[in-house]
Amino acid sequence: MPTTDFASGEKCWARENGSLYPCTIRKSVSKNSEIRYFIHYTGWNVRWDKWVQTCDLLKDTPQTKELVKMVEKRKKEIGKKKKGEVGREEVKEGEEKGNEAKEETPDAIGLQKERAAKRQKLHQKRNNLTPPSLLDPFVALNPSPTDTPPSTPLPLPYILKKELVDDWMNVNGGENHSPENSKTVKLPCSKTVEDILNDFMTSRTSDLEEWNSFIVGLTLYFNKSLPLLLLYPLERSKHPTTEPSKTYGRTHLLRLFLKLPYLLKSTGSVGEGEVKVLIGRAGEVVRWLSRIEDAEVEYV
User: Region entry Disordered: which residue ranges (predicted)?
Assistant: First the structure.
């Protein structure tokens, strides 16, 4: 077994989006001769806790702290430079708007639309907004936007939302939406929904009878919902005849959690109080999922 470079409880620094953040090692695991660490960012909510590799971490030394200062100084310099560029773009944008007011020919209207698209991209860049295309998995899997949102939502931690976005990108052919690059989850999954929920039950130490009833109901919900609501069009032709909970895995379970508040809301036989209890239990499963490290989902 390889030797760990960082001990549990040790304070260190983690690389994240070009910056260095202070963190604490919670635990470590060894898989395929590689050490991975579960870290907590100092001063941040636990929902940002994550697994990282050794190469993402730096020891808490005077040299590292000096490096942190250099990185922050460099980021401020880059920020000032970008601010100046955005200011010049705003001036140009104002000139274009003034010219558009005088243009009403068909060609000019097309040009206006093109410039409007550029302004939208500039707005997204300036305000660090996520491009609409990256929100598609949530639009695609949620009911119609005209539906009333459920009174009891089920928040998904960032790490699980990212998994859903990555899943959507694979199924829809990447950023360019290229059909030849489309992939679906390899079935049967190495760890099925049934396996995952059994592992969750093993982690419970109290209220076992109530939890067992909830997991049985959740499994039934998954098996009934998957063929109708949890598959993208590309996946429907590949849907096997076996029981879904014995074939599909973590990714499709996350899709169910995304839709669960809407499904419970549409079930007239379930009262609002009972919905809150069920969503509360589902939230515990979701948080548990965000903390464990399962085998990587394989796409083919």
Answer: 75-111, 116-135
